[in-house]
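Example 3.2
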Amino acid sequence: MGEPLIHVPGAPDERRPALGYAMVWTAAILFAVNGTVAKVALGSGISTIELTQVRSLGACVGFALVLAVLRPQSLRVRLRELPFLALFGVTGVAFVQWLYFVAIDRLPVGIALLIQYLAPLLVALFARYAMHEPVRRRVWLALALALAGLALIVEPWSEELALDELGLVAALAAAGAYALYILMAERGVRSRDPLSLSLYGFLFAGLFWLVAQPLWHFPLSLVGEPTSLLGNLAGHTAPLWLLLAFVVAVGTMLTFSLVVSALRHVSATRVGIVAMLEPVVATLVAYLWLAESLGPAQLLGGGVVLLGIVCAQTAR
């Protein structure tokens, strides 16, 4: 099969689980903040498709510039890698974002997140029954606790809840795409470094969005306009380009790099579980920034999710 394109650390004797968990925790927190920033950006009039397009193309250019300066040799790619990278970029990167946006357009954000975070369960089931890998009992307990905590956060049993069928389908598909992303990224880092894997993922995602939404349709006139920060910061504004820059640099490049890098040190199953910290932090950020209320059930649910995360981290 030949030698890898570049040396990739992450062999069993090089794994550092504590570092891997720290990366996922950091990524989950930044993803949560990025969600609120993206919501503020959408308030400017930019569409979800256009925001996703900016995110994909911006991250692609950013990763390319970083690698061209720091590790130009990692930009090389073999022809036999292209099918995997294309599939990873379209299904694992582009579809995860698009399906999630469709879901939150038709469902409450919390419900969409709860359904999407069935992905770790799908990863664990795949590892156990398709790959015949051992999955310890404590990991199953962690999954149960995390999902129960998320259910408490979003209260899907509420009498006022009305679930749109297309929204449900989109959220379930987003869970599948997210699970596929985690599994493909875990495989991808065996032969490529995290930055170059992320680059090619966003490259193919960006190409997909260029076909789906031609670039000349993008509303460039909005980029320099001031945008209200909404909620508790409604009296303040920021230019849309600054919000987009945050979404690309922090909410995409940094976060995706952290998740992919963590897969060198922590299994895909546990990465998926620890990433469930995102909706907990997102709820807190929305409360502090957007003035969205937190009830006793949400607070209890956040504690249960954290308990599940700790349980997953202490599993051996």
